[in-house]
């Protein structure tokens, strides 16, 4: 039993270190009236949001109550608001670049949570899990090519300057606004995000 606990602990640490397409959520089935919202649910959402943020070039989020502890920390409205914001930053910055990988920010059951009024619902957790799972990876959104260099939280997919001729584009080609290697006769327009 002790070996299994150590293995799970190691596996848990590994899952937080790498960006995974879908997170293995604790209490995968959260049901109204039967599942208590626990500290681990909030922590997993935060870990996943931070993993996604790092992958897309954002800094980790500055959480209120950085440590959510079982039996000590009261789960509050602000915890849900911050997770929504942490994930929505990615949706807003990248959905125009690659909507199939990063969808636009979802509509929430309770778009505004009011402290002391809005009860924590299973949908609040499920919607955030779905939002996190719906965000793909930077590599699938902005694949690194000769003219594309990855993700940037401010600029979206980062591309080399239009008209540049990196070594990978032969002398008859150059980069366009969107990171494609195109004919040298291409005229660069005013480049702006899609």
Briefly say what this structure is:
This protein has 194 residues and is mainly α. Helix content is 35%, strand content 8%.
Descriptive account of the structure:
This protein is mainly alpha-helical. The protein is 35% helix and 8% strand. The chain is built from five helices and four strands. The strands form two sheets. Strands 1-2 form a two-stranded antiparallel ribbon. Strand 1 and strand 2 form a beta hairpin. Helix 2 runs parallel beside helix 3. The N terminus is likely disordered.
H/E series = HHHHHEEEE
Can you count the beta strands? 4
How helical, in percent, are the residues?
Answer: 25-40%
Sheet with the most strands: spatial strand order: 1-2
Low-confidence stretches: 1-21
Spatial separation of the terminal alpha carbons:
54 Å
Which structural class fits the helix and strand makeup?
mainly alpha
β-strand percent reads 5-15%
Detail the topology: elements first, then pairings.
Elements: H1 2-17, H2 39-55, H3 77-94, H4 122-134, H5 138-141, E1 148-152, E2 156-159, E3 173-175, E4 181-183
Which features would summarize this protein structure in a list?
two-stranded antiparallel sheet, two-stranded antiparallel ribbon, mainly alpha, 194 residues, elongated, 5 helices, 4 strands, disordered N terminus
């Amino acid at each position: 039993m002790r070996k299994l606990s150590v293995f799970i602990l190691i596996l848990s640490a590994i899952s937080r270190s790498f960006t995974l397409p879908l997170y293995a959520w604790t209490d995968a089935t959260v049901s109204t009236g039967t599942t208590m919202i626990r500290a681990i649910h909030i922590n997993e959402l935060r870990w996943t949001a931070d993993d996604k943020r790092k992958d897309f070039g954002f800094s980790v989020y500055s959480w209120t109550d950085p440590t959510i502890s079982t039996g000590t920390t009261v789960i509050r409205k602000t915890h849900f608001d911050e997770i929504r914001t942490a994930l929505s930053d990615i949706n807003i910055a990248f959905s125009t670049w690659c909507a199939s990988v990063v969808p636009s920010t979802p509509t929430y059951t309770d778009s505004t949570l009011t402290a002391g009024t809005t009860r924590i619902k299973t949908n609040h957790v499920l919607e955030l899990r779905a939002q996190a799972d719906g965000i793909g990876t930077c590599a699938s959104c902005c694949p690194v090519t000769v003219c594309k260099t990855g993700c940037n939280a401010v600029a979206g997919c980062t591309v080399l300057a239009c008209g540049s001729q990196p070594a990978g584009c032969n002398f008859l080609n150059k980069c366009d606004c969107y990171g494609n290697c195109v004919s040298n006769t291409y005229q660069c327009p005013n480049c702006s995000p899609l």
